[in-house]
Design brief:
Distance between the termini: 49 Å
Shape: elongated
Number of helices: 18
CATH topology of the largest domain: Rossmann fold
CATH architecture of the largest domain: 3-Layer(aba) Sandwich
Radius of gyration: 30 Å
Helix content: 40-55%
Strand order of the largest sheet: 9-8-7-12-10-11-13
Largest sheet: 7 strands, mixed
CATH superfamily of the largest domain: Dihydroxyacetone kinase, domain 1
CATH class of the largest domain: Alpha Beta
Length: 538
Amino acid sequence: MTQFLNEKADIVTEAIDGLVAASGGALARLDGYPHIRVVLRNDWDKSRVALVSGGGSGHEPSHGGFVGPGMLTAAVCGDVFASPSVDAVLAGILAVTGPAGCLLIVKNYTGDRLNFGLAAERARAFGLKVRMVIVDDDIALPDLPQARGLAGTLFVHKIAGALAEGGADLDTVADRAESVIARTRSIGMSLDTCTVPGAPKEARIPAGMAELGLGIHGEPGVEQVPFDTARNAMAAVSEKLAAGMGDGSHVALLNNLGGCSVLETAVLAHELFSGPLAGKVTAVVGPAALMTSLDMRGFSISLLEAAPDEVAALGADVPMAAWPGLSQITSIATAALPDGLSPIRPPASDHPDTRAFLTHVCQIMINAEADLNALDAKSGDGDTGSTLANAARALQSAMDDLPLADHTQLFRALGQELSQTMGGSSGVLLAIFFAAAGDAASSGVSTIDALKAGLTRMQEIGGAELGDRTMVDAMHPALDALPGGIPAAAAAARAGANATAAMLQAKAGRAAYVNAAQLEGHNDPGAEAVARLFEQLS
């Protein structure tokens, strides 16, 4: 997999230099590259307890992104997924520790425990006060004697950091850190493994499956489970977290492991707040990329049964952009539509033949969803089928509220419905089409002439003409042929749609930005949808 990296040996040092240079002077790094890589606060005066954490790189923004007032004093960075050396950890301790002492916050991995532990012993030999806490929040492998440290580590960073910033002594900070660790539970899920620079990608998670309980270095999880929806994925994670969960209110940390889109993590947040843990989780950190695993396409949830002062500490402002803050979970607020956007609907009425016809039309569009998406992916963004199918589903749901017995009012009602439920330019254009058809029908013209009037208005506003490689290329000949019956209209629509495959330049729509090589040989998806509709009706 191609990555935006230079030499493998320089990845960590270049990333640290990028972080420090972009900090506005808030951060510095120790000299000693490439063996000693420590990010530290540039304003630190050693008057309070220092907090030092770190480990292998590849988990950004952890840990360097959380160095600053109210969190870490220094972060010690190893190679990707490799513990920093004893000398690097010791350098970090010596650089920031004063009479108040230092707390080392270490994730429970053998290399980190050994290297941070030996560095702590050597620092004590220098006469420094040093305590170390081990974060072991992973609940995926209950029989494992040494549970791994995951994103729950950030609860410790923030709460201990708030105490240290407020002037608490070392024992107070360390004891509270140990208490937080004891009440923190984390588990992750991913659809894919991560890509380690310079190493072949491991493809152990097959399509249609997700791995539950994998580690932040790509270690295998407890099991692979079928994956179909974000809802079921969150339910599986929540089931593990709920076992042994305390009765008090909890703070959740929703962590993007690196490869999920912002859209996906927002959906996961919705499922977390409305799923099995609803009511038990009252506040959330994130969703955000906090402790990643390079580009792993997964997420983790950490839960802390937090005391009120800990909630306040998690919510305390810090200047580091990597920390997203704490938010209380509330019910979804809604506001009424502004005047003029709430449509005045004609009275609903039933007409069995019209209902059957519209239901059939909707089902045709739903059945064509995958094919139209695949066609659109060749010349657009691959969503034409979904746009039409979602509008059809919405129309099916609204069928009982439509004036089915009054075709003049029905055209207008269809236009209103599509303007609200159908996304993209297609929704607007079809809304114009049906609104104009309704206006024409109200003047007494025939249904076919009303539809032609709708098409004319749609072309006037949308700007598309015959030959521009749009749905007009199938719709225009179909309506011209419709007086001869639906089979004639279907044949005309098909000929028009097929002709678009030879049109190497689109003059309207998103395909206008696509080069000729990508358009050649592929029907316009809008025209194809019109052709399929008439063919199925025929």
